[in-house]
Design a protein that fits this description.
- The chain is mainly α and 105 residues long.
- The chain has a domain at 5-77: lambda repressor-like DNA-binding domains (434 Repressor (Amino-terminal Domain), Orthogonal Bundle).
- It is built from five helices and no strands.
- It has helices at 5-8, 12-31, 36-43, 47-54, 62-71.
- α3 (36-43) crosses α4 (47-54) and α3 (36-43) crosses α5 (62-71).
- The longest helix is centred in the first third of the chain and has 20 residues, at 12-31.
- The chain is elongated.
């Protein structure tokens, strides 16, 4: 099986996360009894873009993924995806006033 250049450059955990997200979007669409055409129209994207999203394509713009999540009414859960408070390196710097305005090397 041929692997696309963009997928080959992704770390394996990132590739797996996209595949799982695409599968969840597919199941959420079917649970709502929506066709791919219905969800694509509701999301303002093409049918081929939705098919790419459901297959976990890394080449689809993040905004399109978010548009589909919004159309499925599950965008609110996105804030729970990454909880920065669980990152020990950031625990002491979470307050906005403690963060630098710019990071330079």
């Amino acid at each position: 099986m041929k692997t696309s250049a963009s997928r080959a450059m992704l770390p394996l955990p990132a590739e797996d996360a996209l595949l799982r997200l695409g599968g969840r979007i597919n199941r959420a669409r079917r649970a709502r009894m929506l066709t791919q055409s219905d969800l694509a129209s509701k999301s303002g994207i093409s049918l081929s873009t939705l098919a790419a999203i459901e297959s976990g394509s890394p080449t689809v713009q993040m905004g399109f993924y978010l548009g589909v999540l919004f159309a499925l009414d599950v965008l609110g859960g996105l804030d729970k995806v990454s909880v920065l408070a669980d990152d020990p390196a950031l625990v002491n710097r979470l307050s906005e006033d403690l963060l630098p305005k710019r990071v330079r090397r």
